[in-house]
Every structure is written in C-alpha cells, then in structure tokens.
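Subject: complex prediction, re-run

Hi both,

The earlier run crashed halfway through, so I resubmitted it with identical inputs.
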Amino acid sequence: MGMLLGGGLFASALSFFYPVLRYLVPPRLTDMGGDTVVAGKVGELRPNSGKIFRFGSRPGLLMLGSDGQYRALSATCTHLSCTVQYRGDLRQVWCACHNGMYDLAGRNLSGPPPRPLEQYDVHVRGDEIIVSRRREA
Amino acid sequence: MWRNRSLGAIFVLIITVALAQAQQPNSCVDCHSALEGELHVTQEQFAQDIHAQKGLTCASCHGGDPSKTDDSAMSKAAGFKGKIERAGVPKLCGSCHSDPAFMRQYNPSLRTDQFSQYQTSIHGKRQAAGDTKVAVCTDCHGVHDLRPASDTRSKVHPLNIATTCSRCHADAEYMATYKIPTNQFADYKTSVHHEALVERGDLSAPTCTTCHGNHGATPPGVGSVANVCSTCHVFQAQLFEASPHKAAFASAGLPGCVTCHSNHGISKPSDAMLGTSAHSVCTNCHTQGDAGYKAAGDMQQQISGLETSIVRSDRILSQAESSGMEVSQPRLELDQARDALTKARVTVHTFAAHPVRADVDSGLKITTKTYGEGEGALRERDYRRTGLGMSLVAIVFVVVALRLYIKEIEKNQ
Amino acid sequence: MAPLARVRNWLDERFGWDELLAPLRHKTVPIHRYSYWYFLGGITLFLFGVQVCTGILLLLYYRPSANEAFESVQYLMTQVKFGWLVRSVHSWAANLMILTAFLHMFSVVFLRAYRKPRELTWVSGMLLLFLAMGFGFSGYLLPWNTLAFFATKVGTDIAGQVPFVGHRTMIFLRGGEEVTGATLSRFFGFHVAVLPGLTTLLVGVHLLLIQRFGISVPARIEPEWRELPQEKREMRFFPSFLLRELMAWYIALGVLGALAAFSPWGLGTKADPFAPAPAGIKPEWYFLFMFQTLKLIPAKLGLLDGEVVGILTFSLAGLIWLLVPFLDGTKRTQRLVTGAAMFVVAYMGMMTAYGYVAK
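This time it finished cleanly. Structure:
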C-alpha cells in the first residue's frame, strides 16, 4: 500500500516539478521590448537604406540617411495599413500599395495617405540601435 | 516655439485693439444694423469678416463716407456705389485680388489669378455672356462675414464645399434651364471620397473642386479624366496608361476611370466588380469567349483565392489564440499577405492575369507559412493537453491510493 | 523507515519535537452530516500556498513598469517554457481561492461556527477575505492590459467617491491623480510585499486560534450530541483528517491544471492611457455585485449622491458583517442573522448574474 502511494506521489511530484524546472531555464530570446526595442546593430545598415523591425505587435521602419543620421517611423501606412519601405533613389518613405509618399520625418507628401507616420526616437547605445516610442510629456 | 506663438498672439491682440480704437465713427452699420432683409448688416457680423479684420471698411467696396451721419454719406459726391450688381462682383473683387502688389501688403502668399481663372470657367464664361444666375465670388465665399478657407465655418472649407456647390447644382428648378443633371451631390454623398472626407476627416480627400477646379470650375474632359484621378491614384493610372484599355476606351469615346468606377458616386471598389458575374463591370463590354472575358475571370479567381487563404490563416490563428496560444508573430506576417492582396487589387488595372498572379503568389507564399504556424500552435495546444492528461492520471492515482491508505490505517484503529 | 526515525529522534532530543507536535496529535475533528464544510478552509489555505509558489515564479520574469509590464507578461506567456501554465494557474487559483474563501465564510455563518469563544477567529477570517480581495484587485492591474487598466480606473474612482477621505484614498491608491505607471508600481508593491506579509501574519493568527479552540461543532449538532452522547463521533486530525484534506488538495490541483490547459488566461491588448475606454468594462466577478448595484442606484437620492450612498451602505454592511459574532446573542438575533445571510447570498448571486448579462 505504502509503495503504491509513494509511487503515485512520486509521479505526481514529477509532473509538478518538470514544468517548474523548465520554467526556470531562461529562454534564448531574452526580450520582447516594450516601448523601447533594439531595432538593429550599428553597421547593419548601409547609408541611404532602411529596414523593417518588429515594434510590439506592429512593424517599424529604421533608416540610415545619407547624412549618417538614424531615423525611425511606424511602418504602417496610414492609408490602408500596408507596410512602407525606404526608397534610396527617392530619399523618401514609400508605400508600394498605392504609391503613398512620406518624407523622412513621416509627413505624408503625396498619394493617398491621410496622416503622417508616427515618429520614434532613435538612440545608439554601444553597438545597438535603440528605438523608443515618444512619450507625451 | 510656445513662447513665440503666445508672443504672436499678444501682438495680434494689441493690433486688433488698436485698430478698434482707431476706427472712425461708422454711420453705415448704425443704420444697416436696424434695417431688414438683405440690407441688414451688423457690426458683429462684419467683424467676423477677414476684410474687416485686415482693416477694410464698408466704404472699401461700397464707397461713400461713413464719417457723415446724414444722407451725404451715401451721395455720389462721396463716391457711393450702393448695392454691387451681381454682374459687377467678380470685377470688384478682382480689383484688389488680381493686383499682386496690393495683395502682397496683406497676404504675400495668396494667389492673384482667381479672376483670370474665373474667366475661363463655365461660370465666368456664362457670366460674361450676360447670365446672372451663375455663381459669382460672393455665392461661394459669402459676403459681409467672409472667412478664409482654412476656417471650418467658411463656406469654402473642404468640409463645406460640396454643400456650397449643391445649393445651386442640386436645385433642379434653378438648374432647369441648363439641362445638366442635379444628382451629383446626392451621388457624391454615397461615394468613398465623401466618406473619407467627412467620416474619416481626411481633409485631403477630394470634394467637388478637387476634380473640377474652383475658380476655373469646368467638368474635366473625357481625355483628361485619367489625369485628374491620377493626381492621387498614381499607380492605377500608370497601369491603365500602359494597358490595352487605354486605346480601346479612347476609340470608343469612353471616359477612362469613370467607365468602370463612375464619377460622383464612386463607391468603394470591391472584388465583385471584377470577373464575370452579374455585378462585374467587365461584362459591360466583354462577352464569353473573348480574351478580356477570360482575363477578368482569371484575375477574379486569383484575388479571391488569396483572400480565401488569408481568411483561412486568420481563422486558424484565431482558433489557436482562443485556446490561449500566442500567435502575434504569424499575425504580423499575415499582414504582409494582406499587403500583397492590396497590391494585387491595384495590379488589376493592367487588365492582364499574369501580373496579378505574381502579386497573388507572393501573398500565397506567406499564407501557406502562417497557416503552418497556426497548425503548429494547435499541435502545441494538444501537447499541453496530453501533458495535462498524464499529470491528471498521476493525480487520480494518488487520490485513489490515499483513499485506500486511509481505509487501511483506520481499519487498524 | 529507520533513517527517518533517526532524524526524528535527533530533532526530538534538541527541540522537543514530539512535545511540539503533541497538540496536533490530540486534535480531533467532529464527524457529522456537515463535516464536508470543514475542508473549505484547508483548500483555501492550499490555494494560497499555490499562489505564493506561482507568484514567486512569476516574479522571475515580470517587470513592474508601464513600459514593460505587458511585454514581460507576453514574453512569459510565449517564450518561457510553461510560462503560460504558471500564469494561468496563478490566475485561476486566485479566483478559486476567493470562491472557496467565500464558501468557507458562508458555511461558518450558516453553521454558526463563530459562536463564543470563536469571535476573533471569525474576525481574522473576515480580514483575510478582505485581503484576498485586495490581492485580486491589485493583481488584476499588473499585466497592464486595457481591461485591467480601465477596471482599475473605475475601481479607484469609486474609492474616490467616499466623503472626506475618498479623494486622498484615491491619490494614495493611484500614486497621483491618474492611473499611471506610478499606480502600477504601487499595486505591485501591495501585491507582492504588503498583502502577503499581512496575510501570512493573519493566517498564523487564524490557525493559532483554531488550534486553541478546536474545531467548532455546528450549533444544530451540539444539542443532538448532548442528548445522545453515544451519537457523538470524531476522527483524529492527524492522520485521518489531514490525509482526507490531502485528497481534496490533489483534486484541487487537478482542477487547476485542467482549467489552465483548457482555458488559459488571456492577455488582451496593452493598456493605452490615451485611448477611450472600451465598452462593457467590468471588474472581476467577486466585485461585480457591488459594481452592478452602484450602477443601478440613481445618480441622486434626494439631496445625497447616489453612488456615495451605495458605497457607504456597502461599507456599513461590511462592518456589520465583520461584527456578526457580537450581535448573535438571543434566539431572535440568531434567526435575524441567518435570514440576513440568506438574503446576502441571494442578493450577491442575483446581482452577479445580472452584472454578467447586463450590457
């Protein structure tokens, strides 16, 4: 009887502690970001180019201008929510869906977009490029 | 920035107060505020007028001498012009507004071509031919409480333009002699442009003047329709220009974009417009057996295929989500497929099945992936349930064993 | 068993282990037709233990700031192995704990177990229930999702309606005029430090009092046993009752696991303080009866503010409830208390149901 009970207790304890031990192992991906996210590494972008990064549940656009300045915008077009891209030849942000154009500060220049893109702050910390949402002060 | 703005505001205030104090006694409004009907003008009303704010007075347009309090104020000797006849309005306004040197004193960036534009408009031409029913400056801009177009209360603010035009153009009785339709405003109100402007508050969305011009208002000719639409819808216009429809429409005398999308009542385009069904606009010209008929059906099939697979992906992700799985990454990817769908809908304006297929295929590649990720999430859910099942077995086992154990030790007591 | 016995001997030699455990050995539990209710307190205690364990595990990944709270929970749910399980068990056990605590309380009321000399046991238990609700209220905000954000806004707003001290209470709770990151820091502090400390202390007192007075025989059983002493039956707390309790705990664990696997706790969307409140904001179910009542009271009752009247009535009712053992003297007041308790159960049930159905 004791053996039976002991075995059961052991098995159930195993089923409790296995998840807990797995839980304690830190996952490989160490961060989900927040209002701040590492958008890329220094040197990853050539001047006059851009890349899309994940910012929370939406895409963001990180650009390195030909002036060596990093800029970041929301990458969701304000027209029909397509993902915008940086156009090196035009030095502008472009939405491929309906030819919407924004300048590097996110202002809608031409085409259908009704509103500017949200601007993010960019800081370089070490070799990481940190993008953060602007806080209402 | 804030400091500058508030300094500016204070400056404007001082000027306004100074102007008010410097104002001469004005015998015009003394009488006219007491008069009835169209002769009724009050100081409060006129104070709202941009001209009054810039220091102009009644006499600037009507002549006369406001400092006199007797009939001599309205004498010929004082230059009194009285009521400005409709026929004279454009010219009177133009006497200042067409003079760049004069206008520069008030608003250096204001255009001064309104009058010459007006002369090229249907309104202006008919007016020159002696028609007094057509619109003159004051019909659209108002009079005595005329506000700049940027003021939301202005009759020519983007939100109010359509209503302003409709005051004449939707009045069947008034328009009877011109033999043109009067349903444009009613149509426009059902259009996607009206929705964008009024409901979504996008002030850059088109209203009457965006396509017809304002001072030079004229209907765009058949040939220029595509150009007018292309100011915003660049891609569609480019694709249309290169498409077989360009020449075909031109030779049939069909007005470009308007042929399929109509003019004032442009509704939000739907996939049903494509293909060979009863709602399709393609079948207006194409009949079974011709190449266009086949392309229309093909494009429709492609696009609805992508849409279906997006919905399918979305459904499996929602299912995974509702059983507690986190699928924000595939959801983010699925947005790319939606991009592809939007692009394909633009590519339709090539009126060829092949380019549409390219867009659709890039979307399908993504939906295949996201669907797989949805399935993976559901497998993970099942794995959790299996794990739970195993631990439940252990738990039930312990409970039963405990029960037996209790029985055993209590039997001994 | 020999090594175990040796350890026991070693401990006994130094601490007087057997003497310490003697009261437990002599402790008995009455057996009668209401005995089942005795398990509820134990299950509540067990669930509290589950909360402490899973809470500590959550602390390993949670970040208490408005910027990161939501993302850290999202991270925990998606990236950390079994993170979903730990969080779901924490959330479900919290709700079950409040449920069993309420059931425990009502069983004590209907069996009149709070009778002399157990008045203070009742008071400590009631305070524990209030603390549990405080746990629920403060913990609800921590994932910083839209629903929690607005529920906290409404909840603290209601606290702010209390005359004289209300506004200050609200400022104290929110850490400012509005619900912000400062509120989150505070609620986190309450949830993981202040409340657990107080609760542990009170649980100690509660258990000590139970140990001191023994387990109450229901008021209805007591005279039966006095008349027919041969009917009186008891079981030993250790091991008979404890083993049965253990069974109950195992079943509770199974239920928790099943709930977590089949209905994992959702996360919702990240709170946006500038977004308009979504429609249909509702608090957790155990606050719903109060919330719904406050909604039903007209804005003005004569000269008084309807909401204030509602809040004061609930506060007064809570106070009276806390002091029930001291009011329960004569046969008439006994009947009154039982009647009132039945009314309270019916009222809470109906209002909660109504709150769920109402838009």
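The two ends of chain A are 68 Å apart (CA to CA).

- K.
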